[in-house]
Amino acid sequence: MEGEADNQRRVLNLVAVFEEHGAWRHKQAPHIQPTPASSQSQQLPSPPASQSLSQMDAQHQAEQGNNEQQQGQRGLSFKCLSSFRHKIREDNWRRQQDPGLKLHSKEPEEKKIALELLETEQAYVSRLHLLDQVFYTELMKEAKNGKTVPEEVVKMIFSNISSIYQFHSKFFLPELQKRMEDWSCNPRIGDAIQKLAPFLKMYGEYVKNFDKAVELITVWSEKSPPFQELIADIQKRKVCANLTLQHHMLEPVQRIPRYELLLKDYVQKLPPESPDRDDAEKALEMIFMVAKHSNAAIAEMERLQNLWVVYQRLGLEDDIVDPSNELIKEGPIQKISTRNNSTSEKYLFLFNNMLLYCVPRVIQVGAEFQVHLRINVDSMKVRELNDAQFPNTFLVSGKQRTLELQARSEEEMNAWIKAFRDAIDRKEKRSETFKTAVHGLEMDTPALKTEELGRRAPQWVRDNLVTMCMRCREPFNAITRRRHHCRACGYVVCARCSDYRAELQYDGNRLNRVCQECYVFLMGHVVLEDREEKHKGILEFPADAGQEWQRGHTGLVCDPAG
Are 206 and 64 in contact (CB under 8 A)? Predict the structure, then answer.
């Protein structure tokens, strides 16, 4: 009850502060005159005198920062999202969701849509109640008793669902209900949606956290049988309608795009002289901006979903999945053998940073292909070959191997060459951008002299100045490659490049996290190959793994290009 009260107070304060600063835009629409009935709708409380907008914003940022510090360790669960892709963009969900929505046949078209919005909102609030007051509440109760999982895990799974539930149940739904009750004398919903639309931005946090939440459910269901049993018990209840927790958690992800579809339809059906037209169009524009952010997060989830399908086809374990990889093109190809002048069927997966050269498995149990070779895109070259015996052939040359490949047609060959060149260009541009950024950091960050390494505390490079590890150049992400600092040189590096400990004199000779280069210099040890490549799967080797390490330490400035 105390947690619920805190969430409700937080939503109340946010709404009150936003109203105080003129976000409702009443002054922008002086022609709107509220009727006596509408003036009796729920009054929002005034904000506490001691709490300013900047303070509220700082509090919100702090809470969001705390949530972002907790990161999952595994990729996206494909099974939970297998039916997700087409649910939002198609509008057949409107008729499937509630057959009763067609009963208002004699009402004006705009009122039918307003009623549909109200009825779907009522169903949506019921789902939010299930997530917050049933799943979250019961799982948190057991977590506090130490019987299932840590409390922090439950909080990470449900993100800010409590705030979303409080907002919709206490403000959005009551406002819609009041407007529909007063429709005969005040036929409008645009101004109500317009004043509440800014708070829908809170969905961004939930959507970004969704894939991590689904994976936490999967991981902890395996680790904690009581956790799995409690979820299964709740899912058996009538209120769950034979759907899993993951399916119910999709509802908030889908809701914003549905608002956009309904409101767009509402604006189109409004008569030109409708008093709600201006407000409805402004509300639609605000919803569109919120949906844009939500759709971007959804697109990212779909990208990860497609990536996960590829990993399954390759038979790779999900603990080596790298979300920073991007699949560019895949397909069958013929490999030309220079020894016997024949061809054999192969299959290619071209990613943004590597080419996987595969062969189909004869017995496809657990995997469709077997990876025979990995070629880094870095320093790769591709060109067409003029071969009378084997038409439509092209050459792919990389650090690890050169391949002569034959496509089934000239069109297919051109498509492959274009895909390879696009991947190579993107890799080169990223490398140039990184070199420029590192050069700027070297100019702005005073480097320690070699003899001072470990004896004087370095100036740390700020996290927000780099997007890739300053050693292996692999991009950072929130799941498998997070930012760390080398305590010797101050560079921002990934966990794999800083999985070393060395005694630092400036810190009382205590062991500190250092990067591989500083470890070798300070300890005088050569890093063994088995240690350097430990726990690395084929999808997580750095882009220049096959390149021999040759970096100097003069001024602790290492060439990131190797």
Answer: no
φ, ψ at 469 (rounded to 5°): -60, 130
Distance of alpha carbon 103 from the chain centroid: 40
Could you report how far apart the first and last alpha carbons of the chain are, in Å?
A: 58
Lowest-confidence segment of 240-244, 389-393, 445-449 by average pLDDT: 445-449
Query: Exposed, middle or buried by CB within 10 Å (0-12, 13-18, 19+), for 251?
Result: middle
In the numeric block, the tokens 């009382």 are attached to 508
Query: Please, which pLDDT band fits residue 440 given cuts at 50, 70 and 90?
Result: low
Instruction: Name the strand (E) or helix (H) holding 500.
Output: strand 500-504
Residue 511, pLDDT above cutoff 90:
yes
Distance of alpha carbon 396 from alpha carbon 403, whole angstroms: 5
Backbone angles phi, psi at 395, to 5 degrees: -110, 130
Cα separation, 255 vs 88, in Å, equals 8
281 within 8 A of 287, measured Cβ to Cβ: no
By DSSP bridging, strand 402-406 and strand 484-485 are unpaired
117-131, 328-342, 465-479: lowest mean pLDDT where?
Answer: 465-479
Q: How far apart are CA 562 and CA 558, in angstroms?
A: 8
How far is residue 263's CA from residue 280's CA, in Å, rounded to a whole number? 8
The tens digit of pLDDT for each residue in 295-318 reads 676 677 677 777 778 887 887 644
At residue 152's C-alpha, the angle toward residues 171 and 145, to 5°, is 100
Q: Which long-range contacts (CB under 8 A, 24 or more apart) does 117-120 make?
A: 117/176, 117/189, 117/259, 117/262, 117/263, 117/266, 118/176, 118/177, 118/180, 120/94, 120/258, 120/262
Q: Residue 321 in contact with residue 74, Cβ under 8 Å?
A: yes
- Residue 15 pLDDT level (bands cut at 50, 70, 90): very low
Please give the DSSP secondary-structure letter assigned to residue 289. H
Three-class secondary structure of residue 14 per DSSP: helix
Q: How far apart are CA 36 and CA 377, in angstroms?
A: 68
pTM given for the model: 0.47
Sheet hosting strand 354-360, strand order edge to edge: 369-376, 354-360, 342-351, 327-337, 402-406, 393-397, 381-385
CB atoms within 10 A of CB 387: 14
As a whole-number percent, the residues of the chain with pLDDT over 90 amount to 35
What does the alpha-carbon distance between residue 421 and residue 361 come to, in Å, rounded to a whole number? 29
- H or E element: which one contains 121? helix 109-129
d(CA 449, CA 555): 5
CA distances from 263 to 118, 187, 259, 267, 277 (A): 12, 15, 6, 6, 11
Dihedrals φ, ψ of 380, to 5°?
-75, 150
- Which residue in this structure is represented by tokens 């190579």? 424
- CA–CA dist 96, 94 (Å, integer): 6
For residues 441 and 433, is the Cβ–Cβ distance under 8 A? no
User: What average pLDDT score do residues 436-443 get?
Assistant: 55
CB-based burial, 408-430: b 16+ in 10 Å, e otherwise = eeeeebeebbebbeebbeebeeb
Nearest residue to 407 (alpha-carbon basis) of 419, 398, 394, 396: 394
**514: enclosing H helix or E strand:** strand 510-514
